[in-house]
Amino acid sequence: MVWASAHIPHGEVRVIPGEWGHLTGAGANPEDVEFIGDAVRELLASPRGD
After folding, report:
1. 10 Å Cβ neighbour count for 31?
2. For a surface tag, which of 29, 35, 38, 47 has the fewest beta carbons within 10 Å of its beta carbon?
3. Taking the CA atoms of the chain, what radius of gyration do you get in angstroms?
4. Under 8 Å CB-to-CB from 23, ≥6 apart: which residues?
């Protein structure tokens, strides 16, 4: 993930904090949902995603 993002212009990695492993972001934890929602909104609000 980190390696691939280095090859994408303006790419970045945002690690979802938590203890859910592969289930992180599946909607089971409201904090994960909020983290992902905030990141997506920030990305969409920026013309280049940065």
Report:
1. 12
2. 47
3. 12
4. none
% residues pLDDT > 70 (the chain): 94
Rounded to whole angstroms, the Cα distance separating 14 from 27 reads 17
Question: What is the identity of the amino acid at 42?
Answer: E
Tokens of 1: 């993930």
Predicted pLDDT of residue 7: 93
DSSP secondary structure letters along 6-38? TTSTT----PPPSS-GGGTTSSSSHHHHHHHHH
> Do residues 36 and 16 touch, judged by C-beta distance below 8 A?
yes
The mean pLDDT of 17-46, rounded to a whole number, is 86
